[in-house]
Amino acid sequence: AILYPVYYLLYTNLSGELSGLDESTYDTTSIATHVLLAFHMLLINVLLVNLLIAMFNQSFQDVQSIQTDIWNYQQYAVVREYYDRPPLFLPFSTIFDIIALIKMFYHWYLRVRYNYANPLQRVFKVIAVQPELELVWQEFESASTYAYAQREALTKIDR
Description:
Protein name: Ion transport domain-containing protein
InterPro entries: TRPM
Structural class: mainly alpha
Number of helices: 4
Distance between the termini: 69 Å
Keywords: Membrane, Transmembrane, Transmembrane helix
GO molecular function: ligand-gated calcium channel activity
Transmembrane segments: 35-56, 88-106
Order of helices and strands: HHHH
Strand content: under 5%
Radius of gyration: 35 Å
Oligomer: single chain
Number of domains: 3
């Protein structure tokens, strides 16, 4: 009889409800009630822990999906930034700038003189394999731009 209140205090405060269980100690329904109540409390606790794990798992999945989108966008930004840069550092990069200027004038001359379009012109554009992915990218870019504009507006107001 001393073990029951301590065991049930692990789960909740049942001070008034447990007194009726110990009145008839030789009754089989009293023992069955204790066993069923203990089994019920254990089962409910297991279910609640599983529910908590499922909720954390869903939150983690949401954060992981958003994080993957942000990482892909930042990787694209880094690749885009270094796409147009010359391969050498500043003193030697002027050589590549001069070569690019000569190519630009040469293609301009071909276009004006012979109405020739350059098929080998360097273009950096990511084309989505799936058309709906392009829409997702546009929505993400517009949401990011909107969030950035809101932050900038708030910092100007705070100043």
